[in-house]
Amino acid sequence: MVVESRPLTWDGETLALGPAGTETVVQSVDGIGMVGSVAPGDWVSMHWEWICDRLTEPQVSRLRRYTERHLAIVNDRSTRSAVPALLG
Predict the structure, then answer these.
(1) How many whole angstroms separate alpha carbon 27 and alpha carbon 46?
(2) Would you give the DSSP letter of residue 30?
(3) Strand 32-33 vs strand 28-29: parallel, antiparallel, or unpaired?
(4) Burial class for 38, CB neighbours closer than 10 Å (0-12, 13-18, 19+)
């Protein structure tokens, strides 16, 4: 099955969502998988190349919000500069 996804990218300073692209994923092997049927246009969660679940619109909305929030936390320079001081 082919899906559209946005992989994480790292440019040496910033973690971000990369451009949308397609990738081939696994829904099941020998009829065994983590999710039932999916149809074109469905939103799915994935782990590596496996489809894990079909997502509802509210789940997609929350996933977007929390992804943006956590990318902002990771990329916050004041937070990153404080980490070595805490470890030192």
Answers:
(1) 10
(2) T
(3) antiparallel
(4) middle
The CA angle 60-63-68, to the nearest 5 degrees, is 130
How far apart (Å, rounded) are the C-alpha atoms in residues 18 and 36? 28
Give the tokens for residue 3: 């899906």
Helix (H) or strand (E) holding 74: helix 57-75
DSSP class per residue in 3-20 = EEE--EEE-SS-EEE---
pLDDT by residue, tens only, the chain of 88 residues? 899 999 999 998 899 999 999 999 998 888 888 888 899 999 999 998 999 999 999 999 999 999 999 999 999 976 666 555 555 5
CB distance 54 to 42 below 8 Å: yes
